[in-house]
Specification:
The chain has 460 residues and is of the alpha/beta class. It has 15 helices and 17 strands. It has 3 domains: 68 residues, no CATH class; 102 residues, Aspartate Aminotransferase, domain 1 (Alpha-Beta Complex); 233 residues, Type I PLP-dependent aspartate aminotransferase-like (Major domain) (Aspartate Aminotransferase, domain 2, 3-Layer(aba) Sandwich).
């Protein structure tokens, strides 16, 4: 019988475990970024199986496991105490200023909204909302099943065709959310015998896709194509996928897609781009950052988008070559086993897309608003990012300062986003502001004044 505690020391791409009497086992470990953690399961004496859940991509990290024996725990924990660890974790978050609360809003909220992702002001557009209502009455409240069973409607097919045509892709596949679209794209375009190279600031949905992929993962420095190239040239597997956002969701900076695709082609890798914050804002008429870079019809580039930001609805989609869409349809678990996007949301996204085509000036208006805000904040001494789309960030000295700043803005009638760890990859808290093309010049001016006047003392 194996008794005592185990200590796992995790290093890049490998781990070693030891248990009593000098027994040991070594096997490759795949992980993501700098988040330590692994699971060690004892199946029989001196037979150790190590399954990494998250391993540092650089450096080393350690984790100590509690007492385990081949017969199981020495004594069962009382049922009322099984989840006591949740209270401990809650206390830690409270001490770090990282408590999160739901704040339900009224249907007719009086605040100016610089926190949501309704970049083009279409979520409340009567044409979009009316299409959603009509679809619900015609098709029902829900889609009734997965896309491969009963969930695919004529609306889904229309949306996929028009979205692909608008963006310049061969085909598209609609998912129930942008999150599930990213999960499906990453996991089905990679696998055990492949390598993934990611930007260190990609969205959480892409991170989860990487974790589920079982691929060898390298997270490289933010917005550094040369680092991507180095990781690709030193990979162990022939098949490789580079994963990036087109516009990074925290500070609103853009990836250099042209440089990335050059690196990919020099090293034989495919490129997956999350264009959630580019669609509707960047490119000709809002066709997105991938279209702007001339890559939507490329045979080695796949794009994911969300329907919940610029299009003001809900859902996500993957765009790319037809064989990619066929592969996802037949293998993506987040597509096959998920209930299809509801008809109301599908109709809303389709109508919003048609409005964007008719009114392309909305994209330019969104960019103008963020540029104006950035200029004013910088002139006032606030540490603002340089926006390249519809997202802008202003840094705060601490999580508590960020929360207080956002609360003061809300008291003055301006709703702003408040990003704190772990939602930010660099650990720096900030206000995250987003454009809404439906805001008037006077609305924007009022919001700017409130944010400047309520800023923490360090920045004012």
């Amino acid at each position: 019988m194996v008794t005592g505690a185990f200590r796992i020391v995790v290093r890049h791409r490998e781990a070693r475990t030891s248990a009593g009497r000098g027994a040991s086992h070594r096997q490759p470990v795949r992980g993501y970024r700098d988040e330590p953690g692994a699971r060690c399961a004892v199946h029989e004496p001196f037979k150790i199986t190590l399954t990494a859940t998250s391993v540092a991509a650089r450096g080393a990290c350690g984790a100590t496991l509690p007492y385990v024996s081949a017969e199981g725990p020495a004594a069962p924990v009382p049922a009322e105490n099984v989840l006591d660890w949740l209270d401990v974790e809650a206390e830690k978050r409270a001490e770090a200023g990282l408590v999160r609360r739901l704040r339900p809003r009224a249907a007719a909220a009086a605040e100016l909204d610089l926190a949501g992702n309704d970049y083009l002001g279409l979520a409340r557009d009567k044409r979009v909302a009316g299409a959603a209502a009509a679809a619900a009455l015609k098709w029902g409240a829900g889609s009734t099943g997965s896309r491969l069973v009963t969930g695919s409607t004529e609306l889904h097919a229309e949306l996929e065709q028009e979205l692909a045509r608008f963006c310049g892709a061969q085909a598209a596949l609609v998912f129930s959310s942008g999150f599930t679209a990213n999960l499906g794209a990453v996991t089905t375009l990679s696998g055990r015998e492949s390598a993934i190279v990611t930007d260190s600031s990609i969205h959480a949905s892409l991170i989860e896709g990487c974790r589920l992929s079982r691929a060898d993962i390298a997270a490289v420095a933010h917005n550094d194509p040369s680092a991507v190239g180095h990781a690709l040239r030193t990979r162990r597997h022939q098949r490789a996928l580079v994963v990036t956002d087109s516009v990074f969701s925290v500070d609103g900076d853009k990836a250099d897609l042209t440089a990335l695709v050059d690196v990919c082609r020099d090293t034989g890798a495919a490129l997956l781009v999350d264009d959630a914050h580019g669609l509707g804002v960047l490119g000709d008429g809002g066709r997105g950052a991938v279209h702007e870079a001339g890559l939507t019809s490329a045979p080695d580039v796949v794009t994911t988008v969300t329907l919940s930001k610029s299009l003001g609805a809900q859902g996500g989609a993957v765009l790319g070559p037809r064989r990619v869409i066929r592969h996802l349809t037949e293998t993506a678990r987040s597509f096959i086993f998920d209930t299809a996007l509801a008809p109301a949301s599908t109709a809303a996204a389709l109508t919003a897309l048609r409005v964007l085509i008719e009114e392309p000036q909305r994209a330019e208006r969104a960019r103008e608003i963020t540029a104006t805000m950035a200029d004013r904040f910088t002139a006032a001494g606030l540490p603002a990012s340089t926006p390249e789309a519809a997202v802008l960030a202003v840094r705060a000295p601490s999580p508590d300062d960020a929360v207080g700043w956002a609360a003061r803005c809300a008291e003055r009638g301006v709703r702003v986003g408040c990003f704190r760890p772990p939602s930010v990859p660099d650990g720096i808290s900030r206000l995250r502001l987003t454009a809404n093309a439906g805001l008037s010049d006077s609305d924007v001016e009022r919001a700017i004044e409130v944010i400047i006047e309520t800023a923490p003392s360090f920045a004012s």
